[in-house]
Each structure stands twice: as structure tokens, then as C-alpha cells.
Amino acid sequence: MRVEDYVAERIKELCDKHGFSKYRLARLTGMSQTALGNIFAKTSIPTIPTLEKICEAFDISLAQFFAGEGDRPDLTDAQKEILELWSELNAEEQKILLKFIRSLES
């Protein structure tokens, strides 16, 4: 797969997952809708700084962007397990757990 194909498809996948429109992603990244449209049309490839802005909008790292869904190459097995468990909690349980973890930092 060509890089421009992968990048465009991955950004579309992340937009779908997060419920982002092209407009919303443009607002979050400071990019124009035209620039994003060119990426989606596979006529341009974002620079690394631009790709970092896109990743920031999705709250993922560059490594996670290129690894794809479900694979987090920058995390240990224990960290992956914690994230799996976290995703099964509801919002209130996540809030309680965060408060508990923060209390351990002292």
C-alpha cells in the first residue's frame, strides 16, 4: 500500500471512530478543510508536524497512528491490560479510578 493511501485511510478510520467530520478535524488541527481534502483525496501527504497535529486531535501517538487499531507498540503488556480494563468501565467508574490513581502519586 502506498503511503498516501495508508495515511488517508487511517485518518478516515480515526474520524469515523471519533465521530469527527472533516470540518471538526480541521478546527482541532488548525488545518484548512482544503488541505485535509487533499490528504483524503490522496493528492498530498502531510508533513510530520502536520501528522503530529492530526494525532494530537485523536489523542494518539505517531506510533499508534502507524500501528493501526488495537495495537499500541509503545506500551508494555501491563499498560495494554490496564487500557483494556479501562475501556470496559463507564464514565463514573473511570472518574473514580483516575481519582484513586492520582491519590497514589503522593
Automatic annotation (TrEMBL):
Keyword Endoplasmic reticulum in record: no
PANTHER family assigned: HTH-TYPE TRANSCRIPTIONAL REGULATOR (PTHR46797), METHYLPHOSPHONATE SYNTHASE (PTHR46797:SF1)
Organism in which the protein naturally occurs: Bariatricus massiliensis
SMART domains registered for this protein in UniProt: HTH_XRE
Origin: domain of life: Bacteria
Database matches in InterPro entries: Cro/C1-type_HTH, Lambda_DNA-bd_dom_sf, TransReg_Diox_bact_type
SUPFAM superfamilies in alphabetical order: lambda repressor-like DNA-binding domains (SSF47413)
Assigned keywords, A-Z: DNA-binding
CDD domains: HTH_XRE
Protein name: Helix-turn-helix domain-containing protein
Domain (HTH cro/C1-type): residue spans on this chain: 11-65
